[in-house]
Automatic annotation (TrEMBL):
Alphabetically ordered keywords of this record: Cytoplasm, Metal-binding, NAD, Transferase, Zinc
Cofactor or coenzyme needed: Zn(2+)
Residues where NAD(+) binds: 17-36, 96-99, 181-183, 207-209, 225
Coiled-coil stretches: none
Keyword Transmembrane helix carried by entry: no
Pfam family, one: SIR2
GO cellular component: cytoplasm
Organism of origin: Seongchinamella unica
A GO MF label: NAD+ binding
Record protein name field: NAD-dependent protein deacylase
Family: Belongs to the sirtuin family. Class III subfamily.
Job of this protein: NAD-dependent lysine deacetylase and desuccinylase that specifically removes acetyl and succinyl groups on target proteins. Modulates the activities of several proteins which are inactive in their acylated form.
Keyword Translocase in record: no
Binding of substrate, residues: 61, 64
Length: 234
């Protein structure tokens, strides 16, 4: 098991998924009771679904934005922030999560590869904004005032995740890659472990149950993100 005081480890990349925010009370996607249990992702999380039924998609994301105000960061978010602050080398955090719990848990650097729930993207002018409350196809864009241009600033299936150049540079330079609370079902994130391994990094999966890509990891810690990260970073 790699230890953080091992001098051969100077650069860590941490990938987080919905399991890290689960203990804060945010539903994951694919667990029992998860977001996709009552919704077909292809009817919500694709550009085609948004074109077909924008009202449904706005409702889904407005409800999740409201929920963000009811939850607070947990010990897993705080442990990662502490590692970023106190580790002598570099700790790069890339999250698939669209919530803001890493930031609220104290992380100054967070790379949101699947976007941010609090933000909207205007398809008319490309501007990004934080709306005061719920929004829909009638809400004018605060930048260009066009109506009907605002969409959730999240990455749907078939769209290119954000910051890929930066992430790939980090994966090629790290000595240790850790994935926490992700099912390993969604690409390209599920393939990051192979990219990091190919460049010689040690790899560790931390999850409540074995993920789909767990055989690609060198080290495993099974359990809750709060407990496992707490022990690792203590
Ligand atoms: C706990 C816990 C606790 C619970 N403690 N653990 C290669 C092969 C096959 C298909 C593809 C491929 N490459 C691309 C594709 C297509 C597609 C894809 O992956 N499809 C799969 C379904 C097969 N990918 C895409 O379309 C992506 N774009 C793309 O690939 O562009 C081209 C490209 C090519 C090459 C390079 C780069 C780009 C875009 C994917 C966008 C995903 N979007 C969503 C929605 C975002 C907005 C929103 O939030 O609504 O992102 S889908 C959803 O899944 C969300 C998540 O970020 C993502 C991952 O989910 P996550 O985080 O893993 O959650 P769960 O629920 O699946 O798992 C939670 C885990 O936590 C579980 O394992 C639990 O056990 C665990 N857990 N409590 C520890 N307390």
């Amino acid at each position: 098991m790699p230890a953080f005081n091992d001098r051969s480890i100077g650069h860590i990349v941490i990938l987080t998924g919905a399991g890290v925010s689960a203990e804060s009370g945010l539903a994951t996607f694919r667990d029992a009771g998860g977001l996709w249990e009552n919704h077909d992702p292809m009817e919500i999380a694709t550009p085609e679904a948004f074109a077909r039924d924008p009202a449904l998609v706005y409702r889904f994301y407005n409800a999740r934005r409201e929920k963000l105000d009811e939850v607070t960061p947990n010990d897993a978010h705080r442990a990662i922030a502490r590692l970023q602050r106190e580790f002598a080398g570099e700790v790069f955090l890339v999250t698939q999560n669209v919530d803001d719990l890493h930031e609220r848990g104290g992380s100054d650097q967070v790379c949101h590869m699947h976007g941010e729930l609090r933000q909207v993207l205007c398809e008319a002018c490309g501007g990004r904004h934080i709306p005061a409350g719920a929004y829909n196809q009638e809400t004018p864009c605060p930048g260009c005032h066009v109506r009907g241009g605002l969409r959730p600033d999240v990455v749907w299936f078939g769209e290119m995740p954000y910051h890929m150049d930066c992430i790939e540079a980090q994966l090629s330079a790290c000595d240790l890659f850790i994935a926490v609370g992700t099912s390993g079902q969604v690409y390209p994130a599920a393939g990051f472990v192979r990219q990091a391994s190919a460049f010689g990094a040690q790899t560790m999966a931390i999850n409540r149950e074995p993920s789909d890509n767990s055989s690609w990891f060198g080290h495993h810690r099974q359990g809750l993100a709060t407990e496992q990260l707490g022990q690792l970073v203590e």
